[in-house]
Amino acid sequence: MGSKSIMFMVYVFFLIATVQAGSSRPGVFNVKNYGAVNNAAKDNAPAFLKAWTEACAAPGAYVKVLVPKGTFGLGPVIFNGPCKAKMIHFEVKGTLKASTDLNKFKTDGWVAFYEITGFKLSGGGVFDGQGTSAWPYNKCPLKKHCKLLPHSIRFDKLTNARISGITSLNSKMFHMNINLCKDIALDSITIIAPDLSPNTDGIHMGNSVGVNITNSNIGTGDDCISVGSGTHKLYVKGITCGPGHGLSIGSLGRYDWEEDVSDITVTNCTLKGTTNGLRIKTWEESPKETKVSNLVFTNIKLINVLNGVLVDQEYCPFVSCSKKAPSKVKLTNVLFDKISGTSASKEAIKIICSKSRPCEGVKLGDIHLTYSGTAVGKDGVLTSTCSNAHITSIGKQTPGACK
Ligand SMILES: *[C@@H]1O[C@H](CO)[C@@H](O)[C@H](O)[C@H]1NC(C)=O
Ligand SMILES: *[C@@H]1O[C@H](CO)[C@@H](O)[C@H](O)[C@H]1NC(C)=O
């Protein structure tokens, strides 16, 4: 054998060894190469973090952290930026299973992505929050002061982010929480939790500008989408919601640190069997003046929804509220148009604004709702109620004008 063919065999040997180790493609950081194992009982957070840290430090236009097919146990973990590459992609093909030991969670998140410009999360994988055993420990629906369970996926301080094609299952608290983000788009998201799971909001956001949520299927125990303080330029399109509490602006006006909310469009959505359809809720006794303005709800299908259109500025789910002071949140320029379907309760449209800050510029376009409940005769006629609101009709409504 000549030295050339020996060199060739050595080369082939190293080639095979490299491919087997899985470190074949540059710019791809497979968590399995950092010690992650396909085991639901193991905490793979240290291995995931090692892969992330290397990927985040790697320069270039694009790097990827890959979670391959399989089931990976995962304790709470924060993936910190900023990263060197222009775009860091977290691709999840497998299923991530959260720890069921609540003592392990020191912050209010399970998987958090923090301070990254140029971020992508995709891959068809599943984030299983394993909330079933945690839900009995959530006292927040009953008590004003309560300990929060961890949200499943947190997006904090992200700029230019795309989240697509992932599933969140049985979160302990919210499925996804978007905070302090700029230009973030979520598409083809699937969210699943039972209708009685407490505070499992689908996608919650706050303090963010430029949020798009499109073509997604959300069924959960609380709001499908909830819009918090400081949200501007939100675009929601093609969402199917149910079970759940509907699409909700708020609740707002509870805390003294809250900011304004503006420029929200919700279009081409279907709500099925939800407790609310389109809801704006602000607390009474709010400690600070804020403004909510320029909201458009259009092309909405309601199927057997309890409160189809609901503006509630006297929101207080606890017995402790005294109604001493009306909400200080001022609502301006709201359009409800092209809303059709069925209402499970007789109160299909309810617009209750603040006594001290009446709503201005509320417009009702074409609204056509029929009753899907069981009351008969006159009792089955839908109603619309409004108070402290200046309302303009720019279309045809059934039920007719507010009384
Ligand atoms: C959100 O959608 C609007 C168009 O409706 C688009 O101009 C904008 O770039 C989108 N934002 C992101 C982050 O994709
Ligand atoms: C509306 O959303 C549905 C999915 O819910 C989608 O199939 C349809 O193409 C959308 N229509 C428009 C006009 O965007």
TrEMBL record:
<keyword id="KW-0378">Hydrolase</keyword>
<dbReference type="GO" id="GO:0004650">
    <property type="term" value="F:polygalacturonase activity"/>
</dbReference>
<keyword id="KW-0732">Signal</keyword>
<protein>
    <recommendedName>
        <fullName>Exopolygalacturonase</fullName>
    </recommendedName>
</protein>
<feature type="signal peptide">
    <location>
        <begin position="1"/>
        <end position="21"/>
    </location>
</feature>
<dbReference type="GO" id="GO:0005975">
    <property type="term" value="P:carbohydrate metabolic process"/>
</dbReference>
<keyword id="KW-0964">Secreted</keyword>
<feature type="active site">
    <location>
        <position position="245"/>
    </location>
</feature>
<comment type="similarity">
    <text>Belongs to the glycosyl hydrolase 28 family.</text>
</comment>
<keyword id="KW-0134">Cell wall</keyword>
<dbReference type="InterPro" id="IPR006626">
    <property type="entry name" value="PbH1"/>
</dbReference>
<dbReference type="GO" id="GO:0071555">
    <property type="term" value="P:cell wall organization"/>
</dbReference>
<keyword id="KW-0326">Glycosidase</keyword>
<dbReference type="InterPro" id="IPR011050">
    <property type="entry name" value="Pectin_lyase_fold/virulence"/>
</dbReference>
<keyword id="KW-0961">Cell wall biogenesis/degradation</keyword>
<dbReference type="InterPro" id="IPR012334">
    <property type="entry name" value="Pectin_lyas_fold"/>
</dbReference>
<dbReference type="Pfam" id="PF00295">
    <property type="entry name" value="Glyco_hydro_28"/>
</dbReference>
<dbReference type="InterPro" id="IPR000743">
    <property type="entry name" value="Glyco_hydro_28"/>
</dbReference>
